[in-house]
Amino acid sequence: MKLIGNVEIKGLEKLRSGKVREMFSYDDKILIVTTDRISAFDFILPSLIPYKGIVLNKISNFWFDYLQDVIENHLIETDFEKFPKFLKKYKDNLNGRSVIVKKVKVYPIECVVRGYITGSAWEEYKNTGMIGDLKLPSGLSICDRLPEAIFTPTTKEISGHDIALTINKAKRIFGAETINFLKEKSIELYLKASEYAMRQGIIIADTKFEFGTDGDRIILVDEVLTPDSSRFWPLNEYRPGQKQKSFDKQFVRDYLLSTGWDRKSEPPELPPDVIKKTSERYIEAYEKITGERFE
Predict the structure, then answer these.
(1) Vertex 244, ends 242 and 246: CA angle to 5°?
(2) Distance CA 120, CA 131 (A)
(3) Could you tell me the domains of the chain?
(4) What tens digit of pLDDT does each residue of 240-279 get?
């Protein structure tokens, strides 16, 4: 199985090389290729994770289809066999891990929805009893389910760490009407997805969505509810008040924290067993979510 860390396509302009995705301009469309790169603590790690790009692409496509009645999305073509002829010679780099999407103007905001309190939200709550400008009930423990899903947007940074936004500040930047729409749709998407995932044995603790404008319409873009953009916890092992096992890349973060790496210099290579277990967790997430065997 070929590992994909970088992609170049002759004749296509590379618009952006993100932490995981490569984006190419193609007529009035965009070709997105999901690589096997993995990032942690705002660094792209030197190790590649087998099957990761294909898993992320397939999970995203599943959710785009499942959630299309909530809001339109940017997908044009997901089947490599139906891609333009000139892309067929790049089959080893594209098959299973690429999509052709609409070219839209993306809002520079991460629409984060939280159903459980963990991560940076837990740290903020411990200090202030709040997340952004949202007052939460007192007495919550780490990983507790919140009384209702909450919208906690952040900036979308090209590099480095996204910065938390209060809803009021987001309204001042983007306009109240736009933020109210993004909040409503983000929570609706999260609730529909989390109810489905619960039936599949997965808790979606939190996730992020991105949106863009296609003409005068706001549509869903980027990736949706993957282990890179969400925290997935196994339902049968969930215990409030303690850290949870996860299907996301927390496993990699925990390993890196155990190495003594200063999180400022170039990160270390991942050992083979961490790479293997990480790949297995991504595949397990795909199989649980879709109910299909990964092949």
Answers:
(1) 170
(2) 9
(3) 13-103 (3.30.200.20), 106-248 (3.30.470.20)
(4) 999 998 887 878 988 998 998 999 999 999 999 999 999 9
